[in-house]
Amino acid sequence: MDFKKEFFKYFQFWPWIMVSLILCVGAAFYYIKTASPTYQTSALINIDKKQEENAKINTFSKESVEKKEVDLNDEIILVTSNDFLSKVVNSLQLNINYFEKGYIQNKSINDVPFVINTTVSNDLLPEIGYDVKIVKEGFLISNPVAEKSYLIRGHSTSQAFEGLPFTIQLTSKAKQNLSYYLSKEYVVNIEPTASAIKNLKSGLSVNTSESQNTNLLLTHEGTNPERSRKILDELIVLLDKNIVYNKQKLFNNTVLYLNQRIAVFSKEKDSIESVKENYLQNNDILVLDKYIVDKTNVKNLKKESSMLNERQISLTKFAINDIRRTSSTSALGTGYNLEAPTVNQLLLNYNASILESELILQRAQKNNPTYLNLVVQLKMQKQAILNTLDGYLNFLNQNNAANRSEQNVANSEAKSIPTKDRVLGNINNNIDLKEVTYLALLQKREEAILNGAVLESNLKTINPSQTNYSAIFPQPKSFMIGAFMFGLLLPLGIKYLNLQLDTKIHNEEDIQKLFSHIPFLGIIPKVDDSEKLDNTATSRSMIAEATRTLFSNISYLLPKKKEQKGNVLLFCSSIQGEGKSFCAFHSAVTISNLNKKVLLIGADLRNPQLHDYFNIEKSNFGLSNFLSNKSDDWKEFLVKNTNFSENLDTLFSGEIPPNPTQLLTNTNFELLIEEAKDLYDFIIIDSAPVQMVSDTLNFSYLADVTVFVMRYDYTDKSALFQLNNFIKKEQLKNVGIVINGVIMKNEYNYGANYSYQYQEKEIKKPWFKKSLS
């Protein structure tokens, strides 16, 4: 990128840039001096929410409460809520704004010489501004929107005036110095509460402090610092009252809830104790531990008794069998360990009888009657013993059945001990839980009552509302820099957009960017009508120099020929009005002034223009007459010996024919060109536009060089694509481009100078030398 070229492309518009800079910087400076600056007012408060947490009913430990993260989101939502802000609006009457009238902008003021009192609800106030002027008679109030004026007589009246939603009266201070306020005008803006809340929200910001999340930063931006401080102070006061109110509400609700829960828990505790009492009574339990011991002892005793009884049964059965096996003359054993005294006594008696029988038998024979009686008696005693043992065995069997039944009952009661213990444990646990909760509720109620006795807000003001008097808007330095940059970039941006949206041809670069293979032959400057025909051999005009340069560049495109014949130059364009006739005419004049024989042919049979340069009638005979009649000699139609050059002959287009395409495609035109090559050094053809008609394309093959004329800031770049298509299809050959109508001082003042002025410039002398001369 050529930065120098790009710089000068925009620098040429420096007057507009300077005008833009002066206007923007001047407007910014005036705005800074007249506008009401916006200041930022801030206040920092701390809200310790741990006090509230301790006052709440918590089933968690204090340690868990302390670890719980505390934030102020609820307070932020509260402060920015419409209901909360409406209290601020109504308290400070923010729906009424007072201004001192200015030329450009009204200035907000605090010291107002009058008081406004609304006569309708703040929610029903219209959103409108009134101009207020203090006059000797009273107040002159006007409504610019409705174009109505009201004259309220008297300065102390408090009566409502029809058509106005407020009453007005002077303050005591203004009454003392009324003349001071007579020349001043004021503006009173009133608005409903909803609009006032919206405006208040737009300037209010509530955020937690970055250093500590329990600190709340309140900021308000406005043009009236005193009013901003009042707003923040009122917000803090209302928030403090709200915190106290919430604490009071929390205290009442807590005590009420605790009383309800204490009553409920008292009933539940009594009910559970009744259940325990009934359960103990139904299960014959006085003390569970003693009950367990007793039931365990009973079980053991029943088991031991059953074992002893079974042992006696076994011993009894053994004794019966042993006695039955023993002979009637043998003594019976007494070591059966039976717990039957009767049986033991019978055994002793039986053995005594056996001993007595043995003594008798020693003294007498077996047939001794005494001995026989004794033997009979022994049998009877033995049978009695057996009968007694059978009875004792039956008794033991009955006891054994009873013992088993009692043992089963004892075992069942012993097995039910864990169940009863679990049931009583659950009952006792419920009782303990109710007692612990009951005691906790009692303790919380005492704490709540104590806290309620000394209710205070946990809000502390760390930094009261303060205003930073460095205006946040407009900031003079940044505002002036912004205005300077805007004034600088505005014309440059407009020019940049203009260049980006511009699709017209301006210079060689526009052509080379798209199609670098098409040669650029030069430019033809835009000239005034007085200079239009100034193209003689000795002329030093811009048009003469430009056409000489054009011919020099065309010479490099001319093909080398073996035969000494004239060269054919075809001048054409894409559309009408691009100046192909102008370029063809001046090129013909320039070449003829170089001692070359030149034939200028007007081949644009539809809209001929060459006759204007020679001041002849368009209806004069010319090319169309020759092409339509082969018997005519085209040389008879030539115009010679013009004022421009003796070497220039011109064949005008002639009468406009009805069929120009058919005439140009017959052999007469080609024969004319071939014959003219032997007579002239250069044949210059002024043809029709190629985009509009096909006339030129029908004979373009006859040209040695095709000069395609494009007009500065007129020809669209799309014509280049069409020209490239003609070249690819070989409909136009050996093509070069020339740009016509270039404004030299705008387009080429930073590049090469195409106009040469040979006149000596007058040397300017300094003013002091002029005076000496």
Characteristics:
773 residues, disordered C terminus, 4 domains, 26 helices, alpha/beta, 19 strands, seven-stranded parallel beta sheet
Description:
With about 775 residues, the protein is α/β, with parallel strands linked by helices. Helix 6 crosses helix 9.
Spell out the blueprint of helices and strands.
Layout: H1 3-11, H2 14-34, E1 38-47, H3 50-55, H4 62-67, H5 73-79, H6 82-92, E2 96-100, E3 107-108, E4 114-118, E5 128-134, E6 138-143, E7 148-153, E8 166-170, H7 172-176, H8 178-181, E9 185-190, H9 193-203, E10 204-208, E11 215-222, H10 225-282, H11 288-325, H12 341-363, H13 369-415, H14 417-453, E12 459-473, H15 476-501, H16 508-514, E13 520-525, H17 542-555, E14 567-573, H18 580-592, E15 598-602, H19 611-614, H20 623-628, E16 648-651, H21 660-664, H22 667-679, E17 682-686, H23 695-699, E18 705-711, H24 718-728, E19 735-742, H25 744-747, H26 767-772
Parallel strand pairs: 13-19, 14-17, 14-18, 15-16, 15-17, 18-19
Antiparallel strand pairs: 1-11, 1-12, 2-3, 2-9, 4-8, 5-6, 5-9, 6-7, 10-11
Helix pairs in contact: 2-15, 6-9, 6-10, 10-14, 11-13, 12-13, 17-18
